[in-house]
Amino acid sequence: SSYREYLKLKGRFESLQRTQRNLLGEDLGPLNTKELEQLERQLDSSLKQVRSTKTQFMLDQLADLQNKEHMLVEANRSLTMKLEEINSRNHYRQSWEAGDQSMAYGGPQSAHSQGFFQPLECNPTLQIGPDYRYNAVASDQITATSQAQQVNGFLPGWML
């Protein structure tokens, strides 16, 4: 029984060696037409499988490269924006250092925004204690000025 198994395995081994030689294009002379056609179909099938595997591998590589390209484009865009921001800051810093104070951090100020900020009228002298001198005209002017400042949204001078 083991001798039969040995002979069977030996025959199978020789058959596989012959098939391998035939696939490599060797020892084709003793093959008939039918065996040659079968060998051709087997080669075609193997070639299609190899091409399919290679194509799939190349498509996977292409997809990976496209993903890398997309990530690099995004990184490039981000770095370009950072560079523009840094250049913008440097421009404002250089403008400021050069004495061009008309340029604010956010850009040039418009006439509208400059009109919004008005200097407050204040008396730089400090009076401690009550002022016992009473002047009716001056008192009316102070009251009118205080009311005008309250209307404009500013604090009256005496609260400063």
From TrEMBL:
GO cellular component terms given for this protein: nucleus
Segments forming domain K-box: 1-89
One GO MF term attached to the UniProt entry: DNA-binding transcription factor activity
Pfam families for the chain: K-box
Protein name: Developmental protein SEPALLATA 2
Species this chain originates from: Mucuna pruriens (Velvet bean)
Gene: SEP2
